[in-house]
Design brief:
This protein has helices spanning about 1-30, 30-35, 55-70, 90-100, 115-130, 145-160, 175-185, 200-210, 225-230, 245-255, 260-280, 285-295, 310-325; strands spanning about 40, 75, 105-110, 135, 165-170, 190-195, 215-220, 235-240. It is of the alpha/beta class. It has a domain at about 30-255: Aldolase class I (TIM Barrel).
Length: about 325
């Protein structure tokens, strides 16, 4: 009887030690990725050549411009990169170009999504190239259950346990407890790109999921960053950064220091640009960014359907805004 008790005690002690060691390893493994997320998360555009193909040389030049501007984390295949308008081969190419340019200079958070086998294959491809994290696009399906949402993300996260995983949440119905459930089985789910346009909802979701457990990224970019930072975000996404990296970096520095008045000065500076991007259900979200880049001579203004180029009558305003920033 005594021997049984001693064995059980020894087993329990060993299990506890193993659990503690695993938790410590998990925390250490993703420390760099967590730190990288608490920043301006750039979503680069995908420039197209005159023949409609991805312009590799211009893509590299735009990436170098962002990196030279001080950006330290980039998301190839994000929505500003026209993720859903790219072919599978083009998405792989964009990831390859980005990892190559960012190597040694910035963290790569590669966007993945579509059907589950495609998302898993994309995540594994990003891992093979040397990306440090993947951002999982909100599942595009007319019928998304909360259990199904967890299953989808779990399958991707478990396929690449070495990578940090960041769900992109646009679903206002999803409960924070479901994210916590996902992370219970997938410790590599370390951050969240939260893109529901409701700061109160974000505050509640983050606290229900675990405010300190995840790195919270304001997924609606600079316009929402001040309000989301006040509720616990420590990073924000940016398409604006393609045009004026210094402007985006000025905002996050102000937010980090608690200078909300300073952050709102930047907000006022970019307000009209972001209003143009957000008009009509964000129909011109990418279009306005590319138009600004075209006005600066940095890339063609071409976008793919279902987006469209700006009409001639609206281009001058975008050009004037871009020219007014210190680039």
């Amino acid at each position: 009887m005594t021997a049984t008790t001693d064995t059980t005690a020894t087993t329990n002690t060993t299990a506890t030690a193993d659990t503690t060691a695993t938790a410590a390893t998990t925390t250490t493994t993703f420390e760099a990725q967590r730190a990288a997320l608490a920043d301006v998360v750039a979503i680069p555009v995908t420039p197209f050549a005159a023949d409609g193909s991805v312009d590799r040389d211009v893509h590299r030049a735009l990436l170098r411009r962002i990196l030279d501007g001080g950006v330290r984390i980039v998301t190839p295949n994000g929505n500003t990169g026209e993720f859903y308008a790219l072919s599978p081969e083009e998405r792989r190419l964009v990831t390859e170009l980005t990892v190559d340019e960012a190597r040694g200079r910035a963290t790569v958070l590669a966007g993945v999504g579509h059907d589950l086998p495609t998302a898993v294959a994309s995540a594994r491809h990003a891992r093979e190239l040397g990306a440090q994290m993947v951002m999982v696009h909100q599942p595009v399906h007319p019928y998304v259950s909360e259990d199904g949402w967890v299953d989808y993300h779990r399958a991707i996260a478990q396929a690449v346990p070495e990578l940090g995983v960041v769900p992109y949440i646009r679903n206002a119905v999803l409960a924070g407890a479901r994210l916590a459930e996902l992370a219970d089985t997938c410790p590599n789910v370390i951050g969240v790109k939260y893109a529901v346009p409701d700061a109160s909802r974000f505050a509640a979701f983050a606290r229900d999921a675990g405010l300190e457990r995840f790195v919270w990224v304001a997924g609606l970019a600079e316009p929402y960053a001040p309000s989301y930072f006040s509720a616990g975000a420590t990073g924000f996404t940016s398409g604006l950064v393609n045009v004026a990296p210094a402007v985006s970096l000025n905002m996050i520095e102000a937010l980090r220091s608690g200078d909300y008045a300073g952050a709102m000065k930047v907000w006022e500076q970019i307000r009209r640009f972001e209003e143009l991007r957000g008009a009509n259900g964000s129909a011109n979200n990418v279009t306005v960014v590319k138009e600004a880049l075209a006005s600066l001579g940095l890339c063609r203004r071409d976008v793919r359907p279902p987006s469209r180029q700006l009409p001639e009558s609206e281009r001058a305003e975008v050009a004037a805004i871009a020219a007014g920033w210190s680039i």
